[in-house]
Amino acid sequence: MKKLLTGLMIAAFAAANASAAPAPKSGSKRYIVTFDAKANQKDRDAALGALELKAAKHIATNGDTDQEVSVALVDVPAGQSLETGIGKAFCKNPQKCSMAVRRIVSIEADKRVKWIESAQVSFQAAPMPSFNGVMAGLSMPKAGAFVQNPMASAIAAQRKEETWGINRVHAPAAWPITEGKGVKVAVIDTGIDASHPDLSGSVDGGYSAITKTENPADYQDDNGHGTHVSGTIAGHRDGKGVVGVAPKARLYAVKVLDADGSGNLSDVIDGIVWAAKNHMDVANMSLGAPVDSEAMHRAVRFARGSGVVIVAAAGNSGQSVGFPGAYDDTIAVAASDSADKLAGFSSRGPEVDFIAPGVDVLSAKMGGGFASYSGTSMASPHVAGLAALVVSQGYVGLNGPDGVFAQLKKAATPLATQGLTAEMQGAGMIDAGKLAR
Ligand SMILES: [Ca+2]
Ligand SMILES: [Ca+2]
Q: What is the pTM of this model?
């Protein structure tokens, strides 16, 4: 069934989307058109050409299986819209229909086209960084805002390197056996500050889905969210600052969110496909939106089929789990505090796979130093680091992402905290000591 997703989510996120990733020319609207898995660039161009439309960009894997990604981004010029046709999609008199309506009728009829959705859906780093007060206008509760308690480097130097979260997942118990050496972890986020003392030398590459380049300057973090996430995954174990769950993992900065922590659906999809094509072992997605997307789901399935373990934040709405975490193909992570209680903002539902530390998590701060943030954004990278420890022990290629998930599950124990249901914590908290063999 073809479907057009429009309106609702755009309106809901309009306030936060004002400065999201640059895309179409002013006034024009961008759509994500998902084609049959086996449709190649020629097929996509032909289908669009028949509608007098051109692809602004192809996001495709161009293989020959049913798990391929075959997507074109299409900009519809100002004054015309695919959306306006929806209500009148069954226009009885084509001569009297607007160009927009005729387009929608004919694109619906094209067998190569499987799905059309607006690219204007906005993704948010979870939690929404509140540097500029962009929480205003969002439907997320304020509880999801991160708690920013910047800690001076001088103070950090006097405390132990292991934070409560690193200790809670018993990461130090695994380190004599594995520190995740050589495992490739994509941080699909706001970028990474590769000059941070706890991350320098660990960032091996990356991609900006916003500028469409692999230029390091383009995937430099300009928000802080991705740097903080990265510190929890792979901060150096050097006795100073903070340390990650898998300190010897290799990081790749896949920048899909801008300086405000917002990003477009099409860039998120582009980032997932990049991670798959570049043979990442693990991808952390501390971001989400409350809307399903056919193109994103296909990208996620392709990535999983390529051997990428995708770990995602459950969300900070306190309500249902966001996407991509809600897909079966991803590992969704809820957030706990240091008393093993569920964070009030942590989203819940049958899609939650694990719970991990996500309240007052100290990690690397963009520009140097350290900061404490809260959110399922902070919980997800604990599990991504744990997944890296599993991959380093040979589960990649053996059973792929399914094997990694099975190992994580075996090492998890439900928290005994009163009132904590499976919908809140999934299989529970993972113990790194049980992962290491
Ligand atoms: Ca360190
Ligand atoms: Ca999932």
A: 0.84
Domain at 98, CATH number: 3.30.70
At residue 109, the 3 state secondary structure works out as helix
Pair of tokens at residue 102? 């005729």
State the CATH number of the domain containing residue 152.
3.40.50.200
47's CB contacts (< 8 A; 6+ apart) are 35, 39, 107, 110, 112, 113
159 and 93 in a common domain:
no
Regarding whether 267 and 405 lie in a shared domain, the answer is yes
Residues spanned by the domain of 193 = 123-435
Number of domains in the chain: 2
Return the pLDDT at 108: 60
Catalytic residue among 75, 110, 189, 260: 189
230 is catalytic: no
User: Is 225 among the residues known to form the active site?
Assistant: yes
Q: When comparing pLDDT for 91 and 409, which is higher? A: 409
Which ligand sits closest to the CA of 405? 2
Q: Which of 377, 382, 392, 431 is catalytic?
A: 377
The strand ranges marked E within 163-209 are: 184-189, 203-208
Give the pLDDT confidence of 4-43 residue by residue, as tens digits: 332 222 222 222 333 333 456 677 888 888 999 999 999 9
The string of pLDDT tens digits covering residues 224-251 is: 999 999 999 999 999 999 999 999 999 9
Residues 75, 81, 122, 225: which is the catalytic one?
A: 225
For ligand 2, the distance from its centroid to the CA atom of residue 353, given in whole angstroms, is 7
Q: Is 377 a catalytic residue?
A: yes
